[in-house]
C-alpha cells in the first residue's frame, strides 16, 4: 500500500501545499487544523485518499486521536510533518504574558514531540518513517517582537536534532526552515511592502507555499535516505543577503 502521512495545520498555507505534494506522490494524507470548515475544503481538494482530523494541537488528546485515526484509516503512518504553529505572543518580551509564552511552547515544541512519540509507538519504531519539523529561517537571528516565536522555533530545531539521533536508524528527522512565505501567518510582514522586501532577497521574490512543500516532499522521499538531523533552509537566499548586491547596484 502507498505511504500514509499526517500533516498538522494543513487547511491552508504551507501545510496544505505539503499535503498536496505528498498526495501527488501517491500518499494517503491525514490533515489537521482547528477550523473544521477550512479543513473539510482542504480534504475535498486533496482527493479521495485524504481525511481530516480537526482539533487544536495544544490538546494532547487531539494529537493521540490524529495518530490513531491515521493508523485506523490507512493502516500505517510513514510520514509526519509538524507544520502547525503559532507566532503569538508578538511584541516585546517584557510585555509578554507568561501564560501566552507557555502556550507558544505547547503548540510549537511540545505538540511536535507528542506527535513523534505517538507515531513512534504506533508505527515508526517497528516500520520506520520520516519526520519533518517546520522551523524558520529566523532561528539564527533575532527579530523585533518575535521573541516567543523565535525561541520556540529554535527549541524545535534543537528537538529535531535530538530526535534524529535518538530515533536513528529507523526514523529520519529533519527540519525545513522557510524564509518569508506568502501565507496568512506572515501576511502582516509581506503585505506591507512586498516589492521592497523582494528586492532585498538574492532570489528576488518572497516564497510561495509550494517552494517549501517541494523541500519537504524531497526530504521524506527515498532520495534523502541518508539525511537526518539536517536543517534545509528555504529562504530565497535571505540568510546570505548581507553579501548580495542587486545587479543594477554599483559594486562596493
Ligand atoms: N509564512 C512564513 O513566512 C513562514 C516563515 C517561516 C516559518 N513558517 C512556518 O510554517 C508553518 C506554517 O505556517 P503558514 O505560514 O503556512 O501559516 P498559515 O497559513 O497561517 O497556516 C497555519 C495552519 O495551521 C493551522 N493551525 C494554526 N494553529 C493551530 C493549532 N493550534 N492547532 C492546529 N492547527 C493549527 C491553521 O488552521 P486553523 O487556524 O484553522 O487552526 C492553518 O491550517 C508554521 O510552522 C510557521 O511557523 C512560516
TrEMBL record:
SUPFAM superfamilies: NAD(P)-binding Rossmann-fold domains (SSF51735). InterPro entries: NAD(P)-bd_dom_sf, SDR_fam. CDD domains: SDR_c. Pfam families: adh_short_C2 (PF13561). Belongs to the short-chain dehydrogenases/reductases (SDR) family. PANTHER family: DEHYDROGENASE/REDUCTASE (SDR FAMILY) MEMBER 4, DEHYDROGENASE_REDUCTASE 4. NCBIfam families: PRK07231.1. This is SDR family oxidoreductase.
Amino acid at each position: 500500500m502507498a505511504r500514509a502521512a499526517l500533516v498538522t495545520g494543513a487547511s491552508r498555507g504551507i501545510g496544505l501545499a505539503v499535503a498536496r505534494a505528498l498526495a501527488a506522490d501517491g500518499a494517503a494524507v491525514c490533515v489537521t487544523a482547528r477550523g473544521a470548515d477550512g479543513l473539510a475544503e482542504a480534504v475535498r481538494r486533496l482527493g479521495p485518499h485524504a481525511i481530516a482530523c480537526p482539533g487544536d494541537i495544544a490538546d494532547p488528546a487531539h494529537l493521540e486521536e490524529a495518530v490513531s485515526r491515521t493508523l485506523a484509516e490507512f493502516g500505517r503512518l510513514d510520514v509526519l510533518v509538524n507544520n502547525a504553529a503559532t507566532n503569538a505572543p508578538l511584541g516585546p518580551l517584557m510585555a509578554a504574558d507568561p501564560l501566552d509564552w507557555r502556550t507558544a511552547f505547547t503548540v510549537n515544541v511540545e505538540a511536535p514531540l507528542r506527535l513523534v512519540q505517538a507515531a513512534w509507538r504506533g508505527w515508526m519504531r517497528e516500520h520506520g518513517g520520516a519526520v519533518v519539523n517546520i522551523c524558520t529561517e529566523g532561528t539564527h537571528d533575532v527579530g523585533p517582537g518575535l521573541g516567543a516565536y523565535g525561541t520556540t522555533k529554535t527549541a524545535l530545531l534543537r528537538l529535531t536534532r535530538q530526535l534524529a539521533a535518538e530515533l536513528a536508524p529507523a526514523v529520519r528527522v529533519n527540519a525545513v526552515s522557510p524564509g518569508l512565505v506568502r501565507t496568512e501567518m506572515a501576511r502582516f510582514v509581506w503585505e506591507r511592502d512586498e516589492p521592497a522586501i523582494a528586492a532585498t532577497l538574492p532570489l528576488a521574490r518572497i516564497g510561495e507555499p509550494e517552494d517549501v512543500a517541494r523541500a519537504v516532499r524531497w526530504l521524506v522521499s527515498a532520495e534523502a535516505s541518508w539525511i537526518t538531523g539536517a536543517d534545509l533552509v528555504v529562504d530565497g537566499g535571505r540568510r546570505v543577503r548581507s553579501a548580495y548586491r542587486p545587479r543594477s547596484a554599483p559594486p562596493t
